[in-house]
Structure formats: structure tokens, C-alpha cells
Amino acid sequence: MGTMRIDGHEIPFQENDNILKAALAANIEIPYFCYHAALGSLGACRLCAVEVASVDPAQKPRVVMSCLEFARDGLSVSVSAAAARQVRQRVIEFLMINHPHDCPVCDEGGECHLQDMTVACGPPYRRYRGRKRTFTNQYLGPLVHHEMNRCITCYRCTRFYQDYALGDDLGSMRLRNEVYFGRFQDGPLTSPFAGNLVEICPTGVFTDAVFRQHFARVWDLQTAPSICPHCSVGCNTLPGARDGTLRRVRNRFHPELNRWFICDRGRYGHQYSEHPDRPLTAQVAGVKMSYREALAAAAEQIKAAGDKTGGLGSTREDLESNAMLQTLLNKLSGRFATFSDPQLETATAAAVAALQSSGGAPSLAEIEQADAALVVGDLTAHAPMMDLALRQAYRNGAKLAILHSGPCLLTRFAATTLTVAPHEIGAQLLHLNEQAATASNASNQHKKELADIATCLTTAQRPILIGVSETMSAPEIAALVQLATALGSHARLAYALPGANAYGTTLLTPTNSTNAVLEAIELGQIQTLIVMGNDPLGDARLGARWRAARQRLSTLIVLDCVATTTAEAADILLPVAAWAERGGTFVNYEGRAQGFAPVFQRAEPLPNTVEVLADLAHCLELTLPDVPAVLNNLFPGYQTPFPGTMGPSLPAPSLTMQTDTTIGTASITHPGHWQVALTSWYGDDALASYAAALVELAPAAAVLIHPTAAFKEGIEDKEQVRLRGPAGTVVLPVQLNNDVAADTIALARVTLAQLGVGHGDLLELERIL
Ligand code: SF4
Ligand code: SF4
Ligand code: FES
To answer: Which residues belong to any copy of the 4Fe-4S His(Cys)3-ligated-type domain (predicted)?
Structure first.
């Protein structure tokens, strides 16, 4: 703490601040390229030159790099001094020697830091008349476009990609004037955070390949503060739209959550809203109709069904829509649920109850400060930015332990990895509990790993336990809570929940409601079902049962913005606005209610889900209270969070943990059967799986088996095997993978749906000889 002077203005600084950081915090502009608040200083670009007066009046002032010089009490700095200005001008002139003068056609134009700095500091004309150095560009996959000639050698890309995100397939090559930033060979970037290169590069070397397909000048984009709809982290974003279509998504700074970055699912998943199959016209019995006609038909069916109407909300729909659907169902005395799989409903409810009772989940900024962490499941696929936060903790020296059943990117950084079949996860958590509580030596085949994890957690000052609720059962979630309790009050607990609004939706979900709705349909007690933003007929484990139950319904009414299996089977389809076309609120994994604003309207606007529900109520001659009144009733003291603000905690009544830690310890083996582990990847959520660029990167469908397990069964790599599940049979090649547990096969979400099984279920595997 102290003060210094910059061009006569007294400004404060914090301990260890450099001059540039302190100046920027005080809104004083010093030109710079290579410094980045997340990456620190490097001194590569030499643009941040300032003049610093010496304490000794006999000595001349000297020019220094402001990003490399610590701020000191009483320091006198000049940004405007002629010597400093001249250095900056020469730096720009040198950089522009090789830089193409293609600003009018460059896709970075309008948000290029080099363009801005050249106008601000550089000479107005180029003196150099020789040949420019040129490079060959690389194909880096469908997400990031490469134009290497624009590089100014600031090293921000590699510092982000390698040092910050811990990726290993992009780096700097060659020497001197020939330094090249790219991959060793052409090919898609493999980091789930690669898209951040687009924002981190101060020029147009890395640009958004999806945005380029249907390019718009950035100054023509309509933007508004938004929240990512693709997972429960709730990263803050800034979508940009033009001519009634969504063109891109960028990061928006939130100091406690995503800060400067987002993951590639958040950046590129938006393509779902421009998918060619997106339903844009209402349909009744497969025939296109006007919205009003379809609405009237839906109201007629609901009226006929009366209290035999059911409703299914969704974890990917906002708080407002779910609350209004619940209110409509209450008015009709109908049944309401929000999940399509009862197991997922129970596990999510257990996780939310655990988060509430543990005093709240840590923010991403707090996760970065952990000195030890236990992760249960594949965090990268389910909450990518939580993974990036843990990578920062790891860089700071934290010890990571991973308990998992299938492929998991974070194992690369783990001090201890315990790979066990899905049904053994709970038992291992109980063993860990014993060890943490009593330092006992469990007699277990994984004794060493358990002892290592227990030691690492019990000796840590800031341990964090993170579970992926989609691949955990409720008792396993309870066992993780117990472990947190055993570690003491300094231990923090977080769960990656299944959906952007899973937390908020769960608070509206009556206990065991999914089962109740499904059984009621099967018993003929529900005739008309309203499904909003959900896909029960495409559910992995229960899709076949939902599809059979659907036959008992007289009317299936679907409100959605993607062409799911359920939307395609609808009797009445009411297309609704996608998230960037409307406002709403998502409650993230911390219980933080974050508002998102409508970014744009389509040329032919679609109603949002709340409007459709209100119109339905009107047709039914029912009076629904307005959204604020409904939410205030559900959450006393609720204030609608203003988009662009930090997002307050939802004032929610506490859920009770409905489960205990009774976990079967006997291993479940059936001859010829394997336990199934879901191998998800960051692009396969319900919405992003309609994003073409992400789909292009999806791993090829395969049966992942550990080499030892495969050897035991005589199964070879790439061999075709047949899998039989309750819903169907699939033939796929085997892929040997060291990250899969024994007795386990790891399968993609789409394969699980074809077979009709979920994570932890048993499956028959047959060799095709
Ligand atoms: S590619 Fe971009 S970020 Fe990387 S060194 Fe060049 S200018 Fe800097
Ligand atoms: S971590 Fe989740 S919320 Fe954040 S950008 Fe990625 S998908 Fe979106
Ligand atoms: S920002 Fe200081 S040398 Fe680049």
C-alpha cells in the first residue's frame, strides 16, 4: 500500500503492484500489449515504456517498462514524457514493419489492440519499404482461425494456453525474427479453453472461426450482459447478434466467477440457436400453424384434461419459466416435475441440500486458492471453468486427488488418482471418511491411494471437495458431505450440477416428483403433458419408458427451442425464444441468482416460455400472478437480479437432505456384464450438442475399456463388440484407455441413450467373432 504520482496525479497502489497495474486500476492509460492481469508481466513487447524520475535530483530520469517496475511510495512517473513517447512510437514502428496493412479487411478490426495502439502511439506513416516476413498459417480446428502474419510476439497466447490453462499442443517455435506461435502440426487445438486465444491475442492472429463463417463488423453487433446457459457454473458472457441472428459469445468479467475467460462450450455452444433444424413455427399434429392456432389447440387439450394435466420443467430453463409452469400446474391441480430421471432428481436435490447446509459453495476465485482438492467424477466435461480454477490451484501448489471411473482430463495434474468402477465410488468415499476421521488404516486394495488422499486433505489449510452430481448417487453425495464435515469447518464443498439452472429448478421440484409424473402417465392419471425445455423421450436411462408412457398420453405439448426427440414426438409444438432472445435468471452452483438480458430479437420473434405460459393461462381463463409475485411467494425477499451485476444469493428455504450414506459395499459383478461409466465431453450438453463446430470435435463413438480388463477377456483394441441394453443393441469398436476402471466400460452419452442405460448400470458385452 502506498501512493505514487503519474503525470501529476496521485494514485494509490497495492503491495507488489507494478506501475502499469496500479495505473490501470486508477484508470490511467499506459499503452501495453504483453501484460495481462491473469498472466502477469513478461516484458516482451516493450510498449509500456514510461519515464521514472530518480530520487537523486542529480540523476536524469530514465525510461522503464512499467509492467516490470514495482510501484513505490513517492515514485514520480510520466507517461507523457517525450522520451517515453518516442520509445513507444519506435516499438510500434518496428512491430508494423512486418504486420500486414490489412486493417480494413481484417476480422479483428474494431477490437484490435494493435490497431488502437498504432493510432494512439505510432508514427502516422510507414518508412520501411522492404519485403515483409511471412508465415504459413495452420488449420487449428473448427473453433479458432490462424493468421500468423499478424503476430507481434507478445507471448500472451502461449502464456495462457500452456502456463495458465496447462494445454500442451500450442507453443512458440523457431527463433529471433521467425518466432512462430502454433501447433507442431496442423490439427484441432485440444484444450477445452482454446477459444480464449481469440480474446487473449491483442491482434488478429487467433480469431473466432465460427464468427468468421457469417462475419459482422464488431461495431454492428448488438450486445447485452448475459449468463452462459450450458452448465451450472454460470459464467458471465457478452453475446453479439446482427440482423436477427446470434453471431458469437465473448467473456464478460465477473471477479468471483469466470473473470477473463470462458470455456469453449460457453463460447461456441450458442450455435444451437441457429441450428437448421431449430423449430421456428408452431405445429399441431405435424402441421405448421400460427402461434395463436397452436396455442388454442393446446388450451383446448389442457381444458379437457383438467387435473389430468402434468408439467415437466427443466434445469436448462430459467427460474421464471419453471416457477410459472409450476404455478399453472397448481392452478390446474396437475402434477409438476422438472427432471426426466428420478435418480438425477434425487442426486441433485441431495447436492443442493448439501450446498445449503455447508454454508455455500466456494466461488471459482476461492477454488483457485485451495491447497488440496478431491474431485469425484469428470469435472472438465460437467463444469469446465471449475476445472480451470482447479488448474490454477494446482499451479499454486495444491495437491489434487481424483476419484473416478472413466476418462477424466484432470487426472494429468493429480497427485493421487483412484480409478474404480461406478459402484465402488461410494465405498471408497466411506473408507476415506474413516481415514479422515480416525486416521485408521483401511484394509482395502486401494489402501495407499486412500491414505495419500486422506493425508493430503487432512493436512491442508484450504481443502475443497468437488462432486459431479450427474455421475453420483444421493448416498455418494451424502458421503462426500460427511467427509467435508470430518475435515472440519475449513473444508469447502461444491457440486457441478446438471444444468445452468439446476440449483434454482431443484428448489421448485417436489420430492420424488419425476417418478410420480411418470407413474401417473403410465396409470392414465395424466392425459396431457406439457414439457418445457426438457427431453424425457431422449433420456439415456429412462427414454424407452418415457416413450412407452407417451403412448398413453392423449396430448404431448412441447415448448422448446431445439429439435429434441420429445419435440419431434409432440402433438403440439410451441417454439420458444432461445436464451439470448429473452431475459431471465439462472441460479448457479453457488446458489447465486444471475440475471441475463435479451440480446436481440429474431426477424420473426418467438415468444419466451413465460409469455407462452401466460397466453395459455389466458386461453384457459385462469389468472396467473405476475412473475415477481410468484418468485416472491416462493423465495421471500427475492429481488430480480439486474443483468450485469454480481448476482445475489437466492433467498431460498433450506432443502432437507433426504438420504443417508447407506452404500452397498459388496462389489456388483455379473458374469458377462460390465458396469457403465458415462464418458462425457465438454461439448455434449443438451444445447451444445446442436452446435456444429463443437459436434465436429466430438470423440468418435467407441467402447472404452482398460487394457488389463480387455486382455482378461481376450478383447483387442479396435475390435468390434456388440452391446445389449434394455432399449437396443449397438455395435462399436473397442478403444483401450488407461483411465477406465476395471469391470467398467465407458460410453458416450449418445450411446447410453441408444442402449437405454445410465451411469452405473450393467450392460452385456459380446465379442463378434
Ligand atoms: S499470436 Fe497473438 S498472442 Fe500470440 S504472440 Fe502473437 S500476437 Fe501475441
Ligand atoms: S464453464 Fe459452464 S457456464 Fe462457464 S462458459 Fe463453460 S459451459 Fe458456460
Ligand atoms: S506490457 Fe510491458 S513490456 Fe509488454
So the answer is: 83-122
